[in-house]
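pasting for ref
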Amino acid sequence: MNWLQLAQEVIGGKVLNNEEALAILNSEDDELLKLMDGAFAIRKHYYGKKVKLNMIMNAKSGYCPEDCGYCSQSSKSTAPIEKYPFITKDEILEGAKRAFENKIGTYCIVASGRGPTRKDVNTVSEAVTEIKDKYGLKVCACLGILKEEQAQQLKEAGVDRYNHNLNTSERHHSYITTSHTYEDRVNTVEIAKKHGISPCSGAIIGMKETKVDVVDIARALNKLDADSIPVNFLNAIDGTKLEGTKELNPRYCLKVLALFRYMNPTKEIRISGGREVNLGSLQPLGMYAANSIFVGDYLTTEGQEANRDYRMLEDLGFEIELSKKQEEVFCS
């Protein structure tokens, strides 16, 4: 396969068929640099060399009634994690201040649970109003299954984006969780879109899915028209259903990132959880397909030191995308 030619066709509007998509995942390792060159051609066409930085604020940890097999916060998990109720508005604001000072463009407020309470939504809404005024950051909320009136309130408060991952293909979904359906997840993303909130939805790779499942989730996210697509690579946690699962290697992870770029050429592709563990020393190559990363820790697992990420981007010759207020502070 001529990957660069295929990339040019994608830029011209081509939609990959299943055979072409599977060819990416099944490509020989010796073709990897050529594949990533094609992915970079698409990425550069739409995003140049800019990189979006994201930071997670874990606003509520544990106490989740859901049975998601990958999650240490699940009701079925025995993982020894820190558990606490929904944090205060001031704590959310303190995190936003850190994000601003560390050149983070998107601040992600994440909470465990099936869905938010009225009090949770009120706390987030009050905090977001102040965050927008003080720091001008893009704010993404990830609070679980969303109701119409909650989406409207978050939109009015200034929430820019709502994250609710599909996680895996519709066919594989019941293996991962049975306490909610694939349709529940799609419906939450559609509710966010309906109320003018930018949809963020992605996948977790390495949960014993097939390559056909990976192609299906990449296509489903295209159909859903998710603006931002986080690609997580399973970091199997002891005490969860997927404990001990180790199906990935760095080269396959790069092929997955290339697939998501070829199949969602205009979208923000973010390398997310499990990046450090699964990509290892090949992390910089991932940025030739992705244009966004998380900096710092995840929900219950640690990321690498932020200065290593900044150094990596500098070494690559990439540019961190700043908010207007950050530009005033850091570029004046």
